Amino acid sequence: MFLKRTCDIVGVLLALIIFAVPMAIVALAVRATSQGPVLYWSQRVGRGNGMFSMPKFRTMRTDTPVVATHLLGDAARHLTPIGSFLRKTSLDELPQLWCILKGDMSFVGPRPALFNQDDLIAARTARNVHSLLPGLTGWAQVNGRDELTIQDKVTFDAEYLERRSFLFDLRILSLTAIRVVGAAGVQH
Predict the structure, then answer these.
(1) Is the distance from CB of 155 to CB of 138 less than 8 angstroms?
(2) What is the value of pTM for the model shown?
């Protein structure tokens, strides 16, 4: 755990150096193309099913219901003018570096559930996945992302719980970089 936390802190500091300018550009673009705040803060479920606030660059209009994107029906009509681009490039996720620095998240772990995703939370709790720190990316993310059913996500998350190691985290980070470049598994 100490090694993982140390790597998270060093990784965040390096990422902030690399992504400071792109983050500033994205913030300006969000502000210029839509009404509302630059960041969207959502209540997420963390380790031990505790709640924390997680920021993203806002990709949806401010009047969008607070539900998982796949439950919106026609999610595309809720997107801001640059929302689809931010999601496909995963640039909307960069503010989560703050949560990693705070210790609410790690670079690798199961993606944090929304507070109202009761079925996902219950399934993860039944498999003890709730004992893990949520991640910016995870084993389920690199194996399907938005395309996975809840049961499939939980299966991958439970596999991560069993296999977690420094080398496995490096593998997941490498696969994440490949998936992000190809925008693989992003539906909206």
Answers:
(1) no
(2) 0.87
Token readout for 60 is 């949806």
SS3 content of the chain, % helix, strand, coil (to 5): 60, 15, 30
> Which two structure tokens, joined as six digits, stand for 137?
């990316």
Is residue 132 within 8 Å of 172, Cβ to Cβ? no
The residue count of the chain comes to 188
Q: Of 13, 50, 57, which is closest to residue 33 (Cα–Cα)?
A: 57
Of the pLDDT bands very low, low, confident and very high (cuts 50, 70, 90), residue 147 is confident
Q: What confidence tens digit (pLDDT) does each residue in 73-108 have?
A: 777 787 899 999 999 888 999 999 999 999 999 999
**C-alpha dihedral (169, 174, 175, 178), degrees to nearest 10:** 160
Q: Could you count the other beta carbons within 10 Å of the beta carbon of residue 46?
A: 20
